[in-house]
Amino acid sequence: MRFFQQMFAAGLTSRRIAELLPCWDTGHTDAEQRAMLRAERDRMQAKVDDLQAALDRLDEVIIAITDTHP
C-alpha cells in the first residue's frame, strides 16, 4: 500500500502504478517495463531538480531579505 501511495504522490497515474505492481511483486521485468521504469524515474528526477532549483532560489530571497532587514 505504501508503494502505491508513494508512486501516486510522485505523479504516476493509477494505470501506470498498476503496470508497475507486477515488477514490484516479482522483481522481474521485461525490456518494455524497464524502459517504462527508467522513463518514470527520469520524469521524477526532473521534478526533483525543478523543486530543488525553486528551493535554492527561495533560500537566496530569504537570505537577501534577512541581510537588508535584520
TrEMBL record:
InterPro entries, A to Z: DNA-bd_dom_put_sf, Tscrpt_reg_MerR_DNA-bd
Gene3D superfamilies assigned to the protein according to its UniProt record, in alphabetical order: 1.10.1660.10
Name used for this protein in its record: Transcription regulator MerR DNA binding domain-containing protein
Keyword Nucleus: no
Species whose genome carries this gene: Streptomyces olivaceiscleroticus
Domain Transcription regulator MerR DNA binding: start-end pairs: 9-60
Keywords: Coiled coil
Coiled coil: 34-61
Keyword Nucleotidyltransferase appears in the UniProt entry: no
